[in-house]
Design goal:
Elements (H helix, E strand, L loop, with lengths): L1 H20 L5 E2 L11 E7 L4 H15 L4 E7 L7 H12 L3 H13 L8 H10 L4 H8 L2 H16 L7 E4 L3 E3 L1 H4 L3 H19 L1
Parallel strand pairs: 2-3
Antiparallel strand pairs: 1-5, 2-4, 4-5
Length: 204
């Protein structure tokens, strides 16, 4: 009996590192989505209120800016009803060409200053402090076009069967995330982009 217990302990000690090394760091999309971009498409799905999204915001943005062989598309997605207001805000800022200016400030406001921007009244008041034309913002925010963008983001996330954020989709086929890739996220993205480029060349 003692020998059996010792064998089990030794087996676990030997096999655990192997299991860790073979961890799957990405998955295949349940349904591969068509990509019309000439370059490899990388979509980032996120939510402003997500702590992990906040922690990788700067590094993932710098990673995308450091590559000229991809088309990088951040998508704010309303996976829950209480995410809708910030999803509308995101696409409103995109339309007003204010996203680059305010994206990081929104993350800081929500995660460092604990400002509840999910509340529309608080959001509008905060935008006024950022010298945003709030009347114009509200008009776009409540428009049919923005609602269409929200629905599109929701449908795209559904097509990939996403259940959480952040998540990255490479060329409509490969899905990875901090949960899957851990600290190797950017390296895994590099590898998936290169794989997608190779696959594109083979199809020509």
């Amino acid at each position: 009996m003692k020998f059996i217990k010792l064998f089990i302990v030794l087996l676990a000690w030997v096999t655990l590192p192997v299991l860790g090394q073979s961890r799957q760091q990405y998955t295949l999309a349940p349904t591969i989505q068509p990509v019309t971009e000439e370059k490899v498409e990388v979509i980032k799905f996120f939510w402003y209120g997500c702590g992990i999204c906040n922690s990788i915001n700067v590094s993932s943005t710098r990673w995308a800016q450091g590559r000229n062989d991809i088309v990088y598309k951040p998508f704010h997605v309303p996976l829950r009803p209480d995410w809708v207001s910030m999803t509308r805000a995101f696409y409103t800022l995109v339309q007003m060409n204010l996203l680059n200016e305010l994206n990081d400030k929104i993350f800081d406001a929500m995660h460092k200053e604990n400002i509840i921007l999910d509340d529309e009244n608080i959001l509008f008041a905060w935008l006024a402090t950022q010298n945003v034309d709030v009347a114009r913002f509200k008009s776009i925010y409540n428009s049919f076009g923005i609602q269409a963008r929200v629905n599109q983001a929701r449908q795209l996330a559904t097509s990939y069967r996403l259940t959480g954020v952040p998540a990255f989709v490479v060329d409509g086929k490969y899905i990875t995330s901090p949960r899957l890739a851990g600290n190797d996220l950017l390296q895994v993205l590099d590898q998936l982009v290169e794989r997608a480029k190779t696959e594109r060349q083979q199809r020509r």
